[in-house]
Amino acid sequence: MERVCFQLQVKAERVEEYKLRHAAVWPEMLQALKDTGWHNYSLFLRADGLLIGYLETPSIEAAQAGMAATEVNARWQAEMAEFFEDLDGVAPDEGFLRLEEVFHLEDQLGAAEGS
Questions:
Q1: Set 3, 22, 98, 104: catalytic member
Q2: pTM: predicted TM-score of the whole model, two decimal places
Q3: What is the pLDDT of residues 20-57, one digit of tens each?
Q4: Residue ranges of domains in the chain, CATH in brackets
Q5: SS (H, E, C) 45-107
Q6: CB of 10 within 8 A of CB of 48?
């Protein structure tokens, strides 16, 4: 599984509404995420709007392409786009900044045990 962490910036004045929207994500959106390979998916939000997302997937490219092919994702992304800064017309699920993984405990433990 590929571990993916990403960053977006929610507009500070929209943080509370963003949290409300994610407290009750549409059931068909949840199913689409599951069906297209978004596993162990979490969002973390700081009070100033810094949003960090994490997911595990066999392929982030395939997971994004799978979602892009769904009607529910098009509706969800259109509604969510107004919450974010600096996307310049790109959908939030394609405009995020991917963060580089520099440490993973289990990987290093496995390497140490294999030595």
A1: 22
A2: 0.89
A3: 999 999 999 999 999 999 999 999 999 999 999 999 99
A4: 2-114 (3.30.70.100)
A5: ECCCCEEEEEEEECCHHHHHHHHHCCHHHHHHHHHHHHHECCCCCCCCCCCCEEECCCCCHHH
A6: no
- CB distance 84 to 95 below 8 Å: yes
* CA atoms of 53 and 98, how far apart (whole Å): 9
Closest CA to 96 of 64, 69, 48, 65: 64
Query: Is there a contact between 59 and 2 (Cβ–Cβ < 8 Å)?
Result: yes
Verify whether residue 22 is a known catalytic residue.
Answer: yes
Where residue 115 falls among pLDDT bands split at 50, 70, 90? low
d(CA 17, CA 21): 6
CB 57 within 8 A of CB 1: yes
